[in-house]
Amino acid sequence: MTRMTFAEAARRALAEEMRRDPLVWALGEDLVQGGIFGQYKGLAEEFGTDRIVSTPISESTIMGAGLGAALCGTRPVVEMRIADFTLCAMDELVSQIAKVRYMFGGQGRAALVVRMPQGMWRNSAAQHSQCLEAWLTHIPGLVVAAPGTPADAAGLLKSAVRSDDPVVLMEPKNLWTAEGEVMEEIAPIPFGVARHAAQGDALTVVTWSAMVPVVEQAARESGIACDVFDLRSLWPWDEAAVIASARRTGRLLVVHEAVTVSGFGAEVVARVVEALGPGGLRAVERLGSPRAPVPFSPPLEDSIRLSPARVADAIRRVAAVGA
């Protein structure tokens, strides 16, 4: 095991995939300079500017070029810099990349990765802080992954690069500098398999992405024996593990950074309730952001940010129902 940051782990995984397969390459703004979070640092020196490509500032062009290159047989890694900027390329992603394999009967495939760093980061304000994961899980044809640890950042990126389906990788901006243990031999992590982060009988807690370290800290500080799952991928997601845990504990808390209204947490809750039937849960709660733009002001941003203390309070509240 080696301790490294989220950015270092992702960079190492991409470098290994580029050495393994000469058809893997990356394109996006400022990649030759290392990328906005340093996740491409040094790759241009090793692989050259034909495989680490800095593009003009045009998200639709970047996404469209990735699609064309994938249809020609290469495996592009499309860097969107910040998830919010993907809104300028949604037609290429939603109407083309997600559907091309189906519409052409498998004769063409968009085997590419779209990296979308998302969420709050250093007071980036309303146009640079959004979590768009729920939009994308709604789109047939896309795989959506959301790593929350350096090890998962590396393993999920490897799986994404090797996938024959388009994969959207929602990387949490606030965790690029977070450190964690990563295996010397980085193995691909399959989509749809959650990480069982903690075991307990009082309630089931489900989370992903930037909320993973927050929830893990909150579970420790709450004094409650929580069964904690880090989903790692949102589509597909590990329904079987979550439902089995909720059936055993009888209580469910879902925590995500995105706006609570219509967030992916609603899908998790709905599937668990459908599976367990009436009376299957004694308590259920979703915890996310309010339906409001993310403020630039640091104190205002902190007021809507989910802290370990707020999550711990929710854990105690859900655990107390029917106890």
TrEMBL record:
Alphabetical keyword list: Oxidoreductase, Thiamine pyrophosphate
SMART domains registered for this protein in UniProt: Transket_pyr (SM00861)
Gene Ontology molecular function terms on file: oxidoreductase activity
Domain of life: Bacteria
Residues covered by the Transketolase-like pyrimidine-binding domain: 4-177
Xref: Gene3D superfamilies: 3.40.50.920, 3.40.50.970
Signal peptide span: none
Family matches, as Pfam families: Transket_pyr (PF02779), Transketolase_C (PF02780)
Cofactors demanded by this protein: thiamine diphosphate
Cited PANTHER family: PYRUVATE DEHYDROGENASE E1 COMPONENT BETA SUBUNIT (PTHR43257), PYRUVATE DEHYDROGENASE E1 COMPONENT SUBUNIT BETA (PTHR43257:SF2)
The protein's name: Alpha-ketoacid dehydrogenase subunit beta
Source species: Neoroseomonas oryzicola
